[in-house]
Amino acid sequence: MDLPPVGLGTMAVDDSAVVETALDVGYRHLDTARIYDNEAVVGAGLAASDVSRESVTVATKLWVDDLAATDVRAATEESAARLGVDTVDLLYVHRPRGPYEPTETLPALDTLVDDGLVDHVGASNFTVDQLRTARDHLDAPLAAHQVERHPLFVRDDLLADAREHGYPLVAYSPLAGGQVRDLPELQAVADRHDTTPEAVAIAWLTGTTGVVTVPKASSRAHLEANLAAATLELDDDDRASVESVETERELFPE
Ligand SMILES: NC(=O)c1ccc[n+]([C@@H]2O[C@H](COP(=O)([O-])OP(=O)(O)OC[C@H]3O[C@@H](n4cnc5c(N)ncnc54)[C@H](OP(=O)(O)O)[C@@H]3O)[C@@H](O)[C@H]2O)c1
């Protein structure tokens, strides 16, 4: 699946004008989820925009209590209705938990692809073993894996799987929920490039082969800065500085 380097994360976005502005400044990938309770907000922003529906990748996620094989169709139809789309471009399993059963849930998702309700199926918060099992039971290619990835938390086994199997790793919480601004190591790199720690974090992610990202932002200034950050080129010393802050602490543990 071909995703742009920077898309819009919408968790906690409750104003459709943010989505409309994002599309206006050039975003073409919108990331939401049923559990964010804002699919209608994202849909309203998309509907109000001059940008054509076809040029935008709309991604949402089935929450854990939607994952019984008998529930996925109704849950997806409801998400699509709230989003105001006929087809969900990318539908993720948000977390492989609860009634998630790969031998049943994944074939049920395949029927949604067959029927045109879903274009691509993705995974989120899977382990390498869970990805392998998913590939065994899903006819459709696994189109993307969305995982927590930012300077404070990196899982390279997941990146290796993405590269080996040729799907994008979608880095969520790329700014560590805003914490990157307080990291002196990132500030030092930012000072060298006359930019911000947020731009450094995004450039470090998008400069990694196989990784795209979905920062959340509200203002036009942040939206524009995050999109532009993908053009910032970091050298090996910059990247080493960013990589020195890793803590192995997740913001979103299981
Ligand atoms: N699959 C999953 O389980 C999962 C879990 C968590 C998140 N996600 C996805 O990942 C997306 C992003 O993660 P996140 O929402 O946790 O946080 P994030 O993108 O790491 O950080 C967002 C925070 O950074 C601020 N910010 C954004 N751009 C900035 C800039 N250029 N300069 C200074 N501050 C800036 C935002 O403030 P303003 O809003 O004021 O601009 C907000 O407070 C989510 O929205 C969601 O789509 C997925």
Automatic annotation (TrEMBL):
Source species: Halomarina oriensis
Source superkingdom: Archaea
SUPFAM superfamilies tied to this protein: NAD(P)-linked oxidoreductase
Coiled coil, from the record: none
InterPro entries found in the cross-reference section: AKR, Aldo/ket_reductase_CS, NAD(P)_OxRdtase_dom_sf, NADP_OxRdtase_dom
Keywords recorded for this protein, A-Z: NADP, Oxidoreductase
Family, as annotated: Belongs to the aldo/keto reductase family.
Single GO MF annotation: oxidoreductase activity, acting on the CH-OH group of donors, NAD or NADP as acceptor
Residue ranges constituting the NADP-dependent oxidoreductase domain according to the UniProt record: 14-245
Name of the protein in its database record: Aldo/keto reductase
